Amino acid sequence: MSELSVNHLLGIKYLNKKDIELIFETADHFKEVINRSIKKVPTLRDTTIANIFFESSTRTKLSFELAEKRLSADVINFSASQSSVKKGETLIDTVNNILSMKVDMVVMRHPNPGAGIFLSKHVKASIINAGDGAHEHPTQALLDSYSIRERLGEVTGKNVVIVGDILHSRVALSNIFALKKQGAQVKVCGPKTLIPKYIESLGVSVETNLKKALEWCDVANMLRVQNERMDISYFPSTREYTQQFGVNKKLLDSLDKQIVIMHPGPINRGVEITSDVADSNQSIILEQVENGVAIRMAVIYLLASKIK
């Protein structure tokens, strides 16, 4: 059996192309499983997984939990925002307390970039990064690429534009790494204030005109503006942002080809995309959600097979 080259999923940065292909092939198998009448497999019956979220999350947490339960793992949910962390307990203390319960794997979301890497060096468990600050969100990038592959046949050679708040987005960074490793061309589009200075060093070009970006691309991944991460105002108003960087049906229909619309969620309807775009046949937003469970099952399964 092929196996991953890594013992943790800390970021797409640490995966190679073969790892990504193996995750996708495994997800294909699990996608069949979750579309059966009995959606569970007994694969991880003896594995205990702790979901530790130091930042609030609904969709990612639910998706991981569902993936773990579909694999028959024992699941511990720990919401650090309402816990002893508030009383001053350190990250290592929190995790060691959980590991003393004989946990095999930790799925962690944390506001600090690099928290998962730090943890992987100090605890004996496989770590899956479910988002660390504005750094990486590897399973989101994997499910995004997997969804493109499902809709367009392959990722190699495709033109993908990531639109919106690139500066604060861990989804953007992980997507750039994943798409480049699979041979796609990537552009970013958004207000200049929301595009990081180093972005071109990642082999990505910048397009500030949304219409031009959409005419170039096969796929547009629309990001929401992350107001919760902003300490200053990066653009004059939401209305002005929407006028310049929001996608509506009229704009989509004005293109001379059909492009695929994606969104990592949650959607601010009427800001980055209108409802008639989100719900159109060009959108694969619901497929992304379904694929998220299959991808997370694949990642958990492949990492668990290295623990045993």
UniProtKB/TrEMBL annotation:
Q: What is its EC number?
A: 2.1.3.2
Please state every residue range assigned to the domain named Aspartate/ornithine carbamoyltransferase Asp/Orn-binding.
157-302
Entry superkingdom: Bacteria
Under catalytic activity, the entry for this protein gives: carbamoyl phosphate + L-aspartate = N-carbamoyl-L-aspartate + phosphate + H(+)
Annotated residues for binding of carbamoyl phosphate:
59-60, 109, 137, 140, 265-266
Where the record annotates domain Aspartate/ornithine carbamoyltransferase carbamoyl-P binding, the positions are 8-150
InterPro entries linked to this entry: Asp/Orn_carbamoyltranf_P-bd (IPR006132), Asp/Orn_carbamoylTrfase (IPR006130), Asp/Orn_carbamoylTrfase_sf (IPR036901), Asp_carbamoyltransf (IPR002082), Asp_carbamoyltransf_Asp/Orn-bd (IPR006131)
Pfam family, any one: OTCace_N
Summarizing the function annotation, the protein's role is: Catalyzes the condensation of carbamoyl phosphate and aspartate to form carbamoyl aspartate and inorganic phosphate, the committed step in the de novo pyrimidine nucleotide biosynthesis pathway.
Which family does the similarity line name? Belongs to the aspartate/ornithine carbamoyltransferase superfamily. ATCase family.
Q: How does it assemble?
A: Heterododecamer (2C3:3R2) of six catalytic PyrB chains organized as two trimers (C3), and six regulatory PyrI chains organized as three dimers (R2).
- What this protein is called in its record is Aspartate carbamoyltransferase
**Per the UniProt entry, what species is this protein from, by scientific name?**
Flagellimonas allohymeniacidonis
